[in-house]
Amino acid sequence: MSILQNIFSKIIPSSFGNVVGNIKDKVENAAKATKDAVTNHPNESNQANQSNQPQSSTNQNKNNQTNSSNQTPHIDVVSILDGLAKNNPQKLNWRTSIVDMLKLLGLDSSLDARKKLAAELHYQGNTSDSATMNTWLHKEVMKKIAEKGGNVKDLF
Questions:
Q1: Deepest of 20, 68, 77, 86, by most Cβ within 10 A of its Cβ?
Q2: Residue 82 in domain
Q3: Total count of domains within the chain
Q4: Which residues face 75 on adjacent strands?
Q5: Does residue 35 belong to any structural domain of this protein?
Q6: Which of 18-27, 58-67, 83-92, 121-130 has the lowest mean pLDDT?
Q7: Residue 80 to residue 45: CA distance in whole angstroms
Q8: CB of 116 within 8 A of CB of 123?
Q9: Counting beta carbons within 10 angstroms of the beta carbon of residue 47, is it exposed (0 to 12), middle (13 to 18) or buried (19 or more)?
């Protein structure tokens, strides 16, 4: 598993967590449960409302399609990492330091590991300039987390 995948697996549920797939499954399960509840509890008012049901279902489906296409799944990464930091005996500044972020996640934060992460993310700079590389790595990792649905936009 790549270093970036390891980072995702520590922050984002189900890692490359097909976040959209997880949400889709939850919606489908909720829809099935609702259908089962209606099917298992028929009553007179249910039969009386059947003439209205296709129109409201159609409108509801249109609303759901509009809402789902406008919503990007997000994971509150800041809260997750703040929670980890609160419970960590070291004072780690994960918001600006890739080294501290890796430590917080229990991952290898050595220079060699960071150079491997830089290669994985196609860093074009000089890996001997670790300060510049670390700053770039932190920004790139945050961008990648955001691409996976992580809510980190106030951090960069």
A1: 77
A2: yes
A3: 1
A4: 150
A5: no
A6: 58-67
A7: 46
A8: no
A9: exposed
